[in-house]
């Protein structure tokens, strides 16, 4: 493992847990066992390190879902993958301090526009992906034609993100299980043909 990769592995959870502002240089040097100079010899500055740490966290927590979705044969299977993935999301991201998209979007909105923009764009990508899946389901006649895909994509994403936030607020992953069951029921009872 090269030095930059080692640093990212060690500091990514710290940025996610403590936030961009809350992650101090002493936290980063303690986690890596390296000096400030050694850390910043591999990254331009703290912002560069934070952005790369965010990307690292996304590769562990979010991008595997996108990869799983891309391998599914149809819209209903893709929607099921989304809910199944999120049933295990709490456990998947607990050690890293929670969902990186939620953490960064709430931590950086007023303090780091670059990081906030990355989180906002990722959320929009997720929303657009849900819209595409719902439209695919309509096109293949797996889903009814008489609903607005944008509205239901927003409902699904809101349930996922809200449940994720509540699961970490209460240290109770059942919030995710209940929300995913509700999304499955919504699809089965309201959207499916």
Can you give a write-up of this model?
- The model has no long low-confidence stretch (mean pLDDT 95).
- The chain is an all-alpha fold and 193 residues long.
- The longest helix is centred in the middle third of the chain and has 27 residues, at 113-139.
- The chain has helices spanning 3-22, 25-32, 36-40, 46-61, 63-70, 75-87, 89-94, 100-108, 113-139, 149-170, 174-191.
| Gyration radius, in Å | 18 Å
Quick one: overall form?
elongated
Query: What is the overall number of helices?
Result: 11
Order of helices and strands: HHHHHHHHHHH
Residue runs with pLDDT of under 50 for 5 or more positions: none
Distance between the termini: 50 Å
Into which percent range does the helicity of residues fall? over 70%
Structural class: mainly alpha
Average pLDDT metric: 95
Let me know the number of strands.
0
- Classify the beta-strand content into a percent band: under 5%
Q: Major sheet: size, sense and barrel closure?
A: none
Ordered list of secondary-structure elements with their pairings:
Blueprint: H1 3-22, H2 25-32, H3 36-40, H4 46-61, H5 63-70, H6 75-87, H7 89-94, H8 100-108, H9 113-139, H10 149-170, H11 174-191
Helix pairs in contact: 1-2, 1-4, 1-8, 5-6, 6-9, 6-11, 8-9, 9-10, 10-11
